[in-house]
Amino acid sequence: MINSPICGLLGIEHPIIQGGMAWVSDGTLAAAVSNGGGLGIISAMSADAGYLSRQVARARSLTDRPFGVNVMLMSPYAGEVARTVADMGVSVVTTGAGNPSKYMKMWIDSGVAVIPVVASVALARMMERSGASAVIAEGGESGGHVGDTSTLVLVPQVCDAVGIPVIAAGGIADGRGFAAVRALGACGVQIGTRFLVADECSIHDNYKDKIIKASDIATVVTGRRLGHAVRSLKTPFSRAYLKAEYDSALPDEDLEKLGVGALRLAAVEGDAEHGCFLAGQVAGMVKKRQRAADIISEIMAEAEVVIKGASEWAV
Amino acid sequence: MVFEKIAEIIAEHLGLAADSVSRDSSLEDLGIDSLDTVEMVMQLESDLGVELELEGKISTVGELVDFVESKL
């Protein structure tokens, strides 16, 4: 059994938080992760408050355990979605793709535990001061929106800079990764990519196949030119996008249009040609489909073996 | 005074001469992303001894100066 201050804080059994992934993290997956003892997360993605309400209701019909909502701050509906999180009494909110300062007071006043995803020390410090319960330090190995600094480098610096619990994300898919970030000072992990292949994850089968077949060098970062770097699998879409980014004759607006709808095409349609299949570098380590609960128990059991065995490394 | 301080921080951050930063300079054109902005705001806080709650998007050096001055 591995203990962690975030288990008591969030009312969960194992310190594993599921990543908030657009078109992936719905109420069904979140409930499966929570039922497995982790913290399931519903992604509010770029949908409106009505979508989020339905997903929260869905999760509540499937689990009595706590779960959270991820608010993607670049969403045009971020404001109404933020309000819904507070109104529906969701216990935890994680945030991504920006600085959630303007919503922090509302959430905290409503009793929501706020756990922002941060990609820098300065943002982590700002979030601690604004009342965050913990931060998720997410390295550039992650899938989806990413910063540049890697997990190995970011996590210890964030741990040194803040007094609140730090959860590590980016590049973690098994018990070894869990133990490694525990050694860096993190007291829990956020995992996205491995849950893509969970039985309860409703994405298209082609997407799951691509994750299972992915190698260590299967992902690429696009979108740097527009300031929204995103990691996804190398596909015809991502290669074409990368090429377009270097085409200085192409206006930014046209580049932006290239990406519209590509996440849905990947997750819902399984469109291998035009879809954008978000995934972390760790996709290369994800080799089998499992129930979400089994993913969690396997990671925790492996982590325990590594952490207990580590005492033999020093004499 | 705030402008000079911000220009100095930006110049140090980017390895530029402070006089190459003007009020009209766009942060994006200077190559400053949102994480850089947060870092500079935190540095301004400790240098100026104020609390700066960064809420809206800041696009130019002049907007950052106005924002900081409104908090002094």
How many H/I helices of chain B?
4
- Give the assembly state of these chains: heterodimer
Rg of chain A is: 18 Å
Strand content of chain A: 5-15%
Query: pLDDT below 50 for ≥5 consecutive residues: which ranges of chain A?
Result: none
N-to-C terminal Cα separation of chain A, in Å? 24 Å
Tell how many strands the DSSP assignment of chain B holds.
0
List how many beta strands of chain A DSSP finds. 11
Mean pLDDT score of chain B, rounded? Answer: 84
The separation of the N and C termini of chain B measures 12 Å
The ordered string of helix (H) and strand (E) elements of chain A is: HEHEHEHEHEHEEHEHEHHEEHHHH
Order of helices and strands of chain B: HHHH
Largest sheet of chain A: 8 strands, parallel
Walk me through this protein's architecture.
The complex is a heterodimer of chains A (315) and B (72). Helix content of chain A is 42%, strand content 15%. Chain A is built from 14 helices and eleven strands. Chain A has helices spanning 5-10, 27-35, 49-62, 78-87, 101-109, 121-129, 151-161, 175-183, 193-196, 205-213, 236-245, 252-258, 262-269, 292-309, and strands spanning 16-18, 40-43, 67-72, 92-96, 113-118, 135-138, 144-145, 166-169, 188-191, 219-222, 230-233. In chain A, the strands form two sheets. An eight-stranded parallel beta sheet of chain A has the order 1-9-8-6-5-4-3-2. In chain A, helix 4 (78-87) links the parallel strand 3 and strand 4. In chain A, helix 2 (27-35) packs parallel to helix 3 and helix 8 (175-183) packs across helix 14. The two termini of chain A are 24 Å apart. Chain B has 72 residues and is mainly alpha-helical. Chain B has four helices and no strands. Chain B has helices spanning 2-14, 27-30, 34-48, 61-71. The longest helix of chain B is centred in the middle third of the chain and has 15 residues, at 34-48. The interface between A and B is medium-sized, with 15 and 14 residues.
